[in-house]
Every structure is written in structure tokens, then in C-alpha cells.
Amino acid sequence: MSEFVRLEVKDGVGTIWLERPKMNALNAQMQGELGEIAREADARDDIAAVVVYGGERVFAAGADVKEMATLTYAEMVSRAHGIQAFTRELAAIGKPTISAITGFALGGGCEVALATDVRFAADNAKLGQPEILLGIIPGAGGTQRLSRLIGPAKAKDIIFTGRFVNAEEALAIGLVDQLHPADEVYAKAVEWASQFVGGPALALRAAKGAVDRGLEVDLQTGLEIERAEFTGLFATDDRTAGMTSFVENGPGKATFT
Ligand code: CAA
Fold first, then answer.
1. CATH number for the domain including 241?
2. What is the pLDDT of residues 151-179, one digit of tens each?
3. Atom 16 in ligand 1: which residue has the minimum CA distance?
4. Which of 4, 18, 20, 22 to mutate to test the pocket of ligand 1 (most atoms within 8 A of CB)?
5. 109 with 57: CB under 8 angstroms?
6. Which InterPro entries match (predicted)?
7. Do 227 and 187 fall into the same domain?
8. Are 127 and 171 contained in the same domain?
């Protein structure tokens, strides 16, 4: 039973709630719970898409610094895999995922948002990777996912300085995709996620896998990944339903299983 992370499912959309007072600081327990709930969201057939949300006030202020403050090097060596695991599990959800960001999304909190496909932010959002100010660097994927998302120069500026990026700048540099008032950002994210309810789940999984795996390899290998995913979909009922419906009724009218 999770204490700090909750999965709520409504009308085909799963919301992963971050719920650890005061700032959703991600201690080791919460990191483990987040990874476990991400796996559950991936596996459940009643979830078509996932929203990650920290509530109206704050998304997450990062890993729990108080918990980490006294860890030795040797202790961190054995924990570091776990620190990357929760964002890896989140990124591995084979369904569309979106973060609804209010207030601070810092350090591990920003890295949670980076592990989803899309980010909607409240106009009061502040994102950043302030680990450098603690004498460390991002450890939950930030150096890799941030630079892939916004490019190495902007990522380095943010990681080297540890500065906070406000909502307008985050939108301008592609760190977030849409801005909304704080009390609307969750509903807007749910609306985005709802588009995929009743959609072709295997094709969505294949599309996400092809884009994400493709970003990790050279172009030729990426094209091979795409080809394998593309041809594989010809074995699915959704492909039959989608194409038959197009031929008989025109575009966009297919019902998928
Ligand atoms: N870990 C533990 N406790 C935290 C925390 C964190 N990351 N962030 C905030 N808190 C706690 C504060 O210690 C404070 O607790 P008390 O009330 O018991 O003193 C409470 O939350 C409220 O925080 P503030 O009083 O500081 O509130 P503020 O509004 O003045 O500032 C803030 C908010 C800007 C988020 C500030 O707290 C802050 O800078 N937090 C740290 C952010 C940070 O460095 N994150 C990176 C963590 S390292 C990491 O994430 C590594 C990784 O890659 C996985």
C-alpha cells in the first residue's frame, strides 16, 4: 500500500498523485512507490493515458535533501540505481503521459516531469535543476532528458546555474508545452489524456516506443525500430478495424478494442 503516491483511475485516465507534505520531496520510499505505481499504470487495461499531478500548490521540490544529507558515498553507490529507476519506470509507461505542473518542479521533481511525454504548467510554475547548489548534479535522469528535450546549451545553463525557470521561459524553450491558470492546469492535462481513451492502444505504445528508442540510437537503427513497430501493427485487430472503417466510412470513425 502506497503512502505518498496514489493512483486514481477515472474514465480511462489514470492520475498519479504525488502526496507527501510539505513539498512532495521524494524520499526513497516515495521514489519506490512512484516506480511501482508507474508499473501498475502501464499494466492496467482500464488506463489509456496517465497524468502526473502534485496538487494545486506544488509539483515536487526534488529528492528529499534531508534524507540524503548524511548519506556516505558508499551508501549512495547502492541507492543511485533506485534514484534513476523511478523516472525510468515512469518513462517506460507505454501510454501517453503528461505532467500537470503547479508551483515548484525542482531537481527530482523536474526529472519526474521530464519523464512524461508532455508537460502542461501553471503560470506560477518554477522549474529547475538546483542540485549544483547542493554540490551535486541531477541524478534521476536530468542531465540526459533535459538536454535531449531543450538542447545541450540551454540544459547546461540550467544545470550549471541551478536557477529557477519561470513558466513563460519554460514555454519559450520547450521545457513545457502549454501554460494554464493554476486551478485549470490539471483539468487541461486530463482533457489532453482523455483523447486517447478508446484509441488504438498497441499503436500508441508502438509510436511512443519508436520515438523514445529512436532518440537513443543512430538514424538507421531508429528507422529499423520504426519498421519493426510499423509492420508489427499489421498483426493487430486495431489495424484491421482502423483500415476497414476508413475504407467503408471515411477517416476518423474507427472503433478500437
Ligand atoms: N527535500 C527536503 N525538504 C524540502 C525540500 C527537499 N527537496 N524542499 C523543500 N523542503 C522542505 C523545507 O526544508 C521546509 O521544511 P520545514 O518547514 O520543515 O523547514 C519546507 O519544505 C518548505 O520549504 P521552504 O521553507 O524552503 O519553502 P520556500 O517556499 O521558501 O522554498 C523551495 C521552497 C524553493 C522549494 C526550497 O525549499 C528549495 O529550494 N528546496 C530544495 C530544492 C532542491 O534543491 N531540490 C533538489 C533536490 S536534490 C535532487 O532532486 C537530486 C536528484 O536529481 C534526484
1. 1.10.12.10
2. 999 999 999 999 999 999 999 999 999 99
3. 22
4. 22
5. no
6. ClpP/crotonase-like_dom_sf (IPR029045), Enoyl-CoA_hyd/isom_CS (IPR018376), Enoyl-CoA_hydra/iso (IPR001753), Enoyl-CoA_hydra_C (IPR014748)
7. no
8. yes
Alpha carbons 205 and 14: distance in angstroms, whole number: 16
The CA distance from 142 to 87, in Å, is 10
Q: Quick one: how far is CA 151 from the chain centroid?
A: 18
105 and 232 both lie in a single domain: no
- Asked if the structure places residue 212 within a domain, the reply is yes
Q: Which atom of ligand 1 is nearest to the CA of 104?
A: 35
Regarding an ipTM greater than 0.95, the answer is: yes
75 in active site: no
For cell 475504407, name the residue: 247
Query: Is any ligand 1 atom within 6 A of the Cβ of residue 66?
Result: yes
User: For the chain, which ranges sit under pLDDT 50?
Assistant: none
Are 142 and 187 found together in one domain? Answer: yes
Grid coordinates representing 75? 551508501
Sheet holding 104-106, edge to edge: 104-106, 126-128, 165-166
Q: Is residue 257 part of a domain?
A: no
Count Cα atoms within 13 angstroms, Cβ side, for 21: 0
